[in-house]
Design goal:
Layout: E1 10-19, E2 22-23, E3 26-27, E4 48-58, E5 63-73, E6 79-85, E7 88-89, E8 95-99, E9 104-113, E10 119-129, E11 136-143, E12 149-151, E13 157-167, E14 172-181
Parallel strand pairs: 8-14
Antiparallel strand pairs: 1-4, 2-3, 4-5, 6-7, 6-9, 9-12, 10-11, 10-13, 13-14
Length: about 180
């Protein structure tokens, strides 16, 4: 027995459900879905999730979800973390120290955290130049490993250390300290 039929029309419905919770990238429990009118625009949202579901229905009232998209919203940069180089703690505003010998260490390297979307990356970068006012972006080097990291035989000049944490929403925070080598 074969049967053929042709749907004479279809209708799509967009629904929107929200949650106030976003913890380490995981959404909380979604509330009741509502059907927005027109093309929804979102603004003023802080932390949470929005789930959009597009459901198709044919002329025979058969329905099926066509597409579900979850948007995770995090408007807060990472927090915490610590960096100490040459005995001086880095800060968002930046700190400075001097090494007469060109030998010193990165003694503290503590990861930043983000309780909302979660952390995507943490990177320690060293940039150098003849003076702290003339750092060369082309000298940027990513330092790997955990503290302590020994810096030996550093030539006279200025060395900036940036400890940058980026969360899964693309927001970042950087702790900075510079070391001047030489008298």
């Amino acid at each position: 027995v074969s049967q053929s039929w042709v749907a004479v029309g279809n209708l799509s419905t967009l629904t929107r459900a929200t949650t106030a919770g976003l913890t380490n990238g995981s959404c909380g429990t979604f509330g009741t879905a509502v059907t927005p009118t027109g093309a929804p625009t979102e603004s003023g949202l802080t932390v949470g999730c929005i789930r959009y579901t597009l459901t198709g229905r044919n002329a025979f009232t058969l329905t099926a979800p066509v597409l579900t998209v979850t948007v995770r919203i995090d408007t807060t940069a990472p927090t915490g973390g610590a960096l100490t180089v040459n005995g001086v703690a880095a800060s968002v505003a930046g700190t400075t120290s001097t090494s007469l010998t060109g030998t010193y260490s990165v003694t503290t390297l503590t990861a930043m955290t983000d309780g909302n979307s979660g952390m995507a990356s943490s990177t320690l970068t060293r940039t150098s130049g003849p003076t702290c006012g003339a750092l060369d972006p082309g000298t940027a080097t990513v330092l790997s490993g955990s503290a302590p990291i020994a810096e030996t035989g550093m030539l006279p000049g200025c060395y900036r250390y940036d400890w940058t944490g980026v969360n899964n929403a693309g927001l970042s925070r950087t702790l900075t300290t510079t070391v001047t080598v030489g008298p």
